[in-house]
Amino acid sequence: MTMWEKLRPYAMVAPAITVFSVFFIYPILYMIYLSMYDWNFISPVKTFVGLQNFFDLLEEEKFIQVIVNSTIYTMLTVSFIIILSLLLSLWLNRAGFFYGFVQGAIFSPHIISLVSIAMIWSWLMDPEYGLLNGVIGWFGFGKLAWLSSQKTALVSLVLVAVWKGLGYNTLVFIAGLQSIPKDLYEAAALDRSSAWTTFHRLTLPMLSPTIFFLVIINMLGSFQVFETIAIMTQGGPVNSTNTLVYYIYEYGFRFFKIGYASAAGVILLLIVGVLTLVYFKLLSRRVHYQ
Protein backbone atom coordinates (compact mmCIF):
# COMPACT_ATOMS: atom_id res chain seq x y z
CA MET A 1 0.00 0.00 0.00
CA THR A 2 1.41 3.36 -1.06
CA MET A 3 1.63 6.38 1.23
CA TRP A 4 -1.20 8.13 -0.66
CA GLU A 5 -3.50 5.14 -0.20
CA LYS A 6 -2.84 5.29 3.54
CA LEU A 7 -3.45 9.03 3.74
CA ARG A 8 -6.42 9.20 1.35
CA PRO A 9 -9.12 8.43 3.97
CA TYR A 10 -7.73 11.15 6.25
CA ALA A 11 -7.54 13.60 3.35
CA MET A 12 -11.20 12.93 2.48
CA VAL A 13 -12.47 13.60 6.01
CA ALA A 14 -10.07 16.50 6.65
CA PRO A 15 -12.44 19.25 5.32
CA ALA A 16 -15.30 18.05 7.52
CA ILE A 17 -13.03 17.74 10.55
CA THR A 18 -11.64 21.21 9.90
CA VAL A 19 -15.10 22.80 9.70
CA PHE A 20 -16.25 20.93 12.78
CA SER A 21 -13.16 21.99 14.72
CA VAL A 22 -13.39 25.66 13.70
CA PHE A 23 -17.11 26.12 14.27
CA PHE A 24 -17.76 23.68 17.14
CA ILE A 25 -14.69 22.50 19.04
CA TYR A 26 -12.83 25.84 19.10
CA PRO A 27 -15.85 27.89 20.30
CA ILE A 28 -16.46 25.42 23.14
CA LEU A 29 -12.83 25.51 24.24
CA TYR A 30 -12.75 29.31 24.00
CA MET A 31 -15.97 29.55 26.03
CA ILE A 32 -14.41 27.43 28.77
CA TYR A 33 -11.35 29.70 28.66
CA LEU A 34 -13.45 32.89 28.93
CA SER A 35 -15.50 31.47 31.82
CA MET A 36 -12.43 31.90 34.02
CA TYR A 37 -12.02 35.60 33.26
CA ASP A 38 -13.76 38.88 34.01
CA TRP A 39 -14.06 40.68 30.66
CA ASN A 40 -16.42 43.34 29.33
CA PHE A 41 -16.04 42.39 25.63
CA ILE A 42 -14.59 45.85 24.79
CA SER A 43 -11.46 46.27 26.86
CA PRO A 44 -8.44 44.22 25.75
CA VAL A 45 -7.70 43.50 29.41
CA LYS A 46 -9.04 40.24 30.84
CA THR A 47 -8.86 39.65 34.60
CA PHE A 48 -8.37 36.04 35.65
CA VAL A 49 -10.89 35.05 38.34
CA GLY A 50 -10.68 31.25 38.22
CA LEU A 51 -13.93 29.56 39.19
CA GLN A 52 -15.44 32.67 40.78
CA ASN A 53 -17.93 33.16 37.93
CA PHE A 54 -19.32 29.67 38.59
CA PHE A 55 -19.61 30.31 42.34
CA ASP A 56 -21.42 33.59 41.68
CA LEU A 57 -23.82 31.90 39.28
CA LEU A 58 -24.73 29.09 41.66
CA GLU A 59 -25.34 31.60 44.47
CA GLU A 60 -27.63 33.78 42.37
CA GLU A 61 -31.36 33.10 42.83
CA LYS A 62 -32.15 34.38 39.34
CA PHE A 63 -29.86 31.80 37.73
CA ILE A 64 -31.36 28.98 39.80
CA GLN A 65 -34.81 30.05 38.62
CA VAL A 66 -33.52 30.10 35.04
CA ILE A 67 -32.41 26.47 35.39
CA VAL A 68 -35.80 25.55 36.86
CA ASN A 69 -37.59 27.37 34.02
CA SER A 70 -35.48 25.59 31.40
CA THR A 71 -36.12 22.20 33.01
CA ILE A 72 -39.88 22.72 33.26
CA TYR A 73 -40.06 24.05 29.71
CA THR A 74 -38.09 21.07 28.38
CA MET A 75 -40.09 18.46 30.29
CA LEU A 76 -43.45 19.89 29.21
CA THR A 77 -42.43 20.46 25.59
CA VAL A 78 -40.85 17.04 25.07
CA SER A 79 -43.68 15.21 26.83
CA PHE A 80 -46.47 16.90 24.89
CA ILE A 81 -44.69 16.67 21.54
CA ILE A 82 -43.89 12.96 21.87
CA ILE A 83 -47.32 11.94 23.15
CA LEU A 84 -49.38 14.06 20.74
CA SER A 85 -47.25 13.26 17.68
CA LEU A 86 -47.43 9.52 18.48
CA LEU A 87 -51.23 9.68 18.71
CA LEU A 88 -51.45 11.70 15.51
CA SER A 89 -49.16 9.28 13.67
CA LEU A 90 -51.35 6.33 14.66
CA TRP A 91 -54.34 8.15 13.19
CA LEU A 92 -52.62 9.48 10.05
CA ASN A 93 -50.79 6.29 9.09
CA ARG A 94 -53.29 5.59 6.34
CA ALA A 95 -53.51 6.04 2.58
CA GLY A 96 -55.81 8.64 1.11
CA PHE A 97 -55.97 12.28 0.06
CA PHE A 98 -57.45 13.50 3.34
CA TYR A 99 -54.72 11.94 5.49
CA GLY A 100 -52.02 13.20 3.13
CA PHE A 101 -53.50 16.69 3.29
CA VAL A 102 -53.56 16.65 7.10
CA GLN A 103 -49.95 15.44 7.20
CA GLY A 104 -48.90 18.34 5.00
CA ALA A 105 -50.93 20.82 7.04
CA ILE A 106 -49.44 19.86 10.39
CA PHE A 107 -45.94 19.70 8.91
CA SER A 108 -46.09 23.23 7.45
CA PRO A 109 -45.17 25.03 10.73
CA HIS A 110 -41.86 23.14 10.75
CA ILE A 111 -40.66 24.93 7.60
CA ILE A 112 -41.72 28.40 8.80
CA SER A 113 -39.13 30.60 10.47
CA LEU A 114 -39.36 30.48 14.26
CA VAL A 115 -39.10 34.28 14.33
CA SER A 116 -42.20 34.55 12.15
CA ILE A 117 -44.02 32.01 14.29
CA ALA A 118 -43.14 33.90 17.47
CA MET A 119 -44.47 37.17 16.01
CA ILE A 120 -47.70 35.53 14.83
CA TRP A 121 -48.33 33.89 18.19
CA SER A 122 -47.60 37.18 19.96
CA TRP A 123 -50.49 38.70 18.03
CA LEU A 124 -52.70 35.68 18.64
CA MET A 125 -52.02 35.91 22.39
CA ASP A 126 -52.60 39.64 22.68
CA PRO A 127 -54.71 40.06 25.84
CA GLU A 128 -57.06 42.64 24.28
CA TYR A 129 -57.31 41.89 20.57
CA GLY A 130 -55.80 38.41 20.21
CA LEU A 131 -57.69 35.66 18.43
CA LEU A 132 -57.21 33.16 21.27
CA ASN A 133 -59.00 35.34 23.79
CA GLY A 134 -61.69 35.97 21.21
CA VAL A 135 -62.22 32.23 20.76
CA ILE A 136 -62.35 31.40 24.47
CA GLY A 137 -64.63 34.41 24.95
CA TRP A 138 -67.22 32.73 22.70
CA PHE A 139 -67.36 29.87 25.21
CA GLY A 140 -67.96 32.20 28.13
CA PHE A 141 -64.43 32.22 29.55
CA GLY A 142 -62.63 35.35 30.62
CA LYS A 143 -59.61 36.81 28.92
CA LEU A 144 -56.21 35.30 29.70
CA ALA A 145 -53.00 37.28 30.05
CA TRP A 146 -51.13 34.69 28.04
CA LEU A 147 -47.68 36.28 28.04
CA SER A 148 -47.98 38.86 30.81
CA SER A 149 -48.88 36.55 33.69
CA GLN A 150 -46.38 34.43 35.61
CA LYS A 151 -48.95 31.62 35.73
CA THR A 152 -49.45 31.30 31.98
CA ALA A 153 -46.38 32.77 30.23
CA LEU A 154 -44.17 29.67 30.31
CA VAL A 155 -47.06 27.39 29.37
CA SER A 156 -47.85 29.72 26.45
CA LEU A 157 -44.29 29.31 25.16
CA VAL A 158 -44.64 25.54 25.50
CA LEU A 159 -47.82 25.76 23.39
CA VAL A 160 -45.91 27.56 20.62
CA ALA A 161 -43.06 25.01 20.72
CA VAL A 162 -45.48 22.07 20.55
CA TRP A 163 -47.36 23.64 17.61
CA LYS A 164 -44.07 24.22 15.81
CA GLY A 165 -42.60 20.74 16.36
CA LEU A 166 -45.68 18.54 16.17
CA GLY A 167 -45.69 18.02 12.41
CA TYR A 168 -42.04 16.99 12.06
CA ASN A 169 -42.26 14.51 14.92
CA THR A 170 -45.52 13.09 13.56
CA LEU A 171 -44.00 12.40 10.16
CA VAL A 172 -40.97 10.73 11.75
CA PHE A 173 -43.33 8.52 13.76
CA ILE A 174 -45.29 7.68 10.60
CA ALA A 175 -42.04 6.65 8.90
CA GLY A 176 -41.28 4.46 11.90
CA LEU A 177 -44.73 2.87 11.78
CA GLN A 178 -44.41 2.12 8.08
CA SER A 179 -41.07 0.40 8.65
CA ILE A 180 -42.66 -2.20 10.96
CA PRO A 181 -43.10 -5.49 9.05
CA LYS A 182 -46.74 -6.21 8.24
CA ASP A 183 -46.39 -9.91 9.00
CA LEU A 184 -45.93 -9.07 12.69
CA TYR A 185 -49.39 -7.52 12.77
CA GLU A 186 -50.80 -10.48 10.84
CA ALA A 187 -49.33 -12.84 13.43
CA ALA A 188 -50.81 -10.73 16.24
CA ALA A 189 -54.21 -10.84 14.53
CA LEU A 190 -54.01 -14.64 14.24
CA ASP A 191 -53.30 -14.79 17.99
CA ARG A 192 -56.40 -12.61 18.53
CA SER A 193 -54.36 -9.96 20.25
CA SER A 194 -56.35 -6.93 21.40
CA ALA A 195 -55.62 -3.46 20.01
CA TRP A 196 -54.01 -2.34 23.27
CA THR A 197 -51.88 -5.49 23.57
CA THR A 198 -50.73 -5.12 19.96
CA PHE A 199 -49.82 -1.51 20.55
CA HIS A 200 -48.10 -2.13 23.89
CA ARG A 201 -46.30 -5.37 22.99
CA LEU A 202 -45.59 -4.81 19.31
CA THR A 203 -45.89 -1.22 18.09
CA LEU A 204 -44.16 0.55 20.98
CA PRO A 205 -41.13 -1.78 21.11
CA MET A 206 -40.69 -1.50 17.34
CA LEU A 207 -40.96 2.29 17.61
CA SER A 208 -38.42 2.49 20.44
CA PRO A 209 -35.52 3.65 18.16
CA THR A 210 -37.76 6.42 16.80
CA ILE A 211 -38.87 7.48 20.29
CA PHE A 212 -35.27 7.38 21.49
CA PHE A 213 -34.14 9.65 18.64
CA LEU A 214 -37.01 12.13 18.96
CA VAL A 215 -36.65 12.51 22.72
CA ILE A 216 -32.95 13.32 22.31
CA ILE A 217 -33.35 15.94 19.59
CA ASN A 218 -36.39 17.55 21.25
CA MET A 219 -34.62 17.70 24.61
CA LEU A 220 -31.54 19.32 23.08
CA GLY A 221 -33.67 21.78 21.12
CA SER A 222 -35.81 22.72 24.12
CA PHE A 223 -32.83 23.47 26.33
CA GLN A 224 -31.50 25.78 23.60
CA VAL A 225 -34.72 27.74 23.02
CA PHE A 226 -34.04 31.39 22.30
CA GLU A 227 -36.11 32.99 19.52
CA THR A 228 -39.53 32.68 21.14
CA ILE A 229 -38.19 33.97 24.46
CA ALA A 230 -36.43 36.95 22.85
CA ILE A 231 -39.44 38.00 20.76
CA MET A 232 -42.43 37.09 22.92
CA THR A 233 -41.45 37.63 26.57
CA GLN A 234 -37.79 38.75 26.90
CA GLY A 235 -37.58 36.46 29.93
CA GLY A 236 -40.51 38.08 31.75
CA PRO A 237 -42.74 38.57 33.52
CA VAL A 238 -40.52 38.63 36.62
CA ASN A 239 -38.01 36.17 35.15
CA SER A 240 -40.71 33.48 34.84
CA THR A 241 -39.82 32.59 31.23
CA ASN A 242 -36.10 33.27 31.27
CA THR A 243 -34.15 30.25 30.04
CA LEU A 244 -30.46 29.40 29.90
CA VAL A 245 -29.68 30.51 26.34
CA TYR A 246 -31.55 33.80 26.73
CA TYR A 247 -29.81 34.34 30.07
CA ILE A 248 -26.44 33.80 28.37
CA TYR A 249 -27.37 36.26 25.62
CA GLU A 250 -28.61 38.80 28.14
CA TYR A 251 -25.44 38.83 30.25
CA GLY A 252 -23.11 38.49 27.30
CA PHE A 253 -24.52 41.00 24.80
CA ARG A 254 -26.61 43.36 26.93
CA PHE A 255 -24.61 43.59 30.16
CA PHE A 256 -21.24 42.71 28.54
CA LYS A 257 -20.29 40.26 31.28
CA ILE A 258 -18.60 37.84 28.93
CA GLY A 259 -16.92 35.69 31.57
CA TYR A 260 -20.16 35.39 33.51
CA ALA A 261 -22.12 34.46 30.38
CA SER A 262 -19.44 31.97 29.35
CA ALA A 263 -19.67 30.29 32.75
CA ALA A 264 -23.43 29.96 32.25
CA GLY A 265 -22.72 28.46 28.82
CA VAL A 266 -20.39 25.88 30.36
CA ILE A 267 -23.09 24.95 32.88
CA LEU A 268 -25.61 24.58 30.03
CA LEU A 269 -23.14 22.33 28.21
CA LEU A 270 -22.69 20.19 31.33
CA ILE A 271 -26.44 19.93 31.98
CA VAL A 272 -27.22 18.85 28.42
CA GLY A 273 -24.28 16.45 28.35
CA VAL A 274 -25.16 14.81 31.67
CA LEU A 275 -28.85 14.48 30.76
CA THR A 276 -27.95 12.92 27.41
CA LEU A 277 -25.57 10.42 29.01
CA VAL A 278 -28.12 9.49 31.68
CA TYR A 279 -30.80 9.05 29.03
CA PHE A 280 -28.52 6.82 26.96
CA LYS A 281 -27.55 4.74 30.01
CA LEU A 282 -31.10 4.27 31.28
CA LEU A 283 -33.00 3.67 28.05
CA SER A 284 -30.56 2.48 25.40
CA ARG A 285 -31.01 -1.13 26.54
CA ARG A 286 -34.76 -0.86 25.98
CA VAL A 287 -34.34 0.19 22.38
CA HIS A 288 -35.08 -2.63 19.95
CA TYR A 289 -33.51 -2.35 16.50
CA GLN A 290 -34.77 -5.70 15.24
TrEMBL record:
InterPro entries: ABC_transporter_permease, MetI-like. GO terms for cellular component: plasma membrane. It comes from the Bacteria. GO terms for biological process: transmembrane transport. CDD domains: TM_PBP2. Its main location: membrane. Keywords: Cell membrane, Membrane, Transmembrane, Transmembrane helix, Transport. The chain crosses the membrane at residues 12-33, 72-92, 104-124, 130-147, 154-178, 198-217, 255-280. Residues 67-279 form the ABC transmembrane type-1 domain. It is a multi-pass membrane protein. It is found in: Cell membrane. PROSITE patterns: ABC_TM1. Pfam families: BPD_transp_1 (PF00528). Belongs to the binding-protein-dependent transport system permease family. This is Sn-glycerol-3-phosphate transport system permease protein UgpA. The gene is ugpA_4.
